[in-house]
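Q: My labmate handed me this sequence with no annotations at all. I'd like to see what the chain might look like in three dimensions before we decide whether it's worth expressing. Could you predict it?
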Amino acid sequence: MANTQDTAKIDSKLPAIILAGSPPDPAIEAAYSVPNRAAVPIAGKMMLEYIVDALRGASGISEIRLIGDLQCPGITETVTPPGTLIENLIAGMRASCPGGKDSHVLVATSDIPMLTSEAVDDFLRRCGDFSADFYYPVIAKSDAETQFPGMRRTYARLAEGTFTGGNIVVMRAGFVLENAETIRSVFGARKSVMRLAGLIGLPILFRAIMAQYISPRALDLKAIEQTVGRLLHATVKALPTSYAGIGADADNVEQIEAFRRILVEKVS
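A: Here is what I predict for the chain of 268 residues:
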């Protein structure tokens, strides 16, 4: 796939953390007999290893810390996960940026085996001067369906197109450490329409519903950036990327097996 961004090496390097503290759901545990979803074997490697390899090969990444109870080659440091996803994120930030709240960190989940070094570097270039607190990749539905036919994703219709979200982000350490309670509240409300309405306000929620069911022009990326930024007390940037592997997460046995077939074909 052609890269539409500058292919020069990235001068400044960011530390990265991989969140790998989640136990497998019953179906995955039954199919693969693993204590952690990141340990699922895919084409001769742990799923986690594909993410580590992608980060190690990226020119914009320095150290890699694993927040999880696994051993994996290529990790700078392993941090025992303290508990919830947000607590694990905070622990990773503290380990990666002791005393440096203005530093940015790349955060990745441990279930995106199709991630590549090129995708990581492309995303980091799109972050520009790292002046915002939170950078989030969005992938066009057309790219996701072309690169991974049949992959089930949740999409949002917006004025600029139909998008799904990615599973790597870049965050300023201070943003996470200073707004931990707000982040917990937002994360806890993500599946409740009424709780979200209380947090973001009815007008933007109404626009979101209008965009999904009536006209996508009712909501655009800029409005989402502003709303999320107001909610999190942060500057937020949504960055379109054509690298769909960033959002190709292995949530269930069906998706794991689909990625296994792709990766076996690559190495054969």
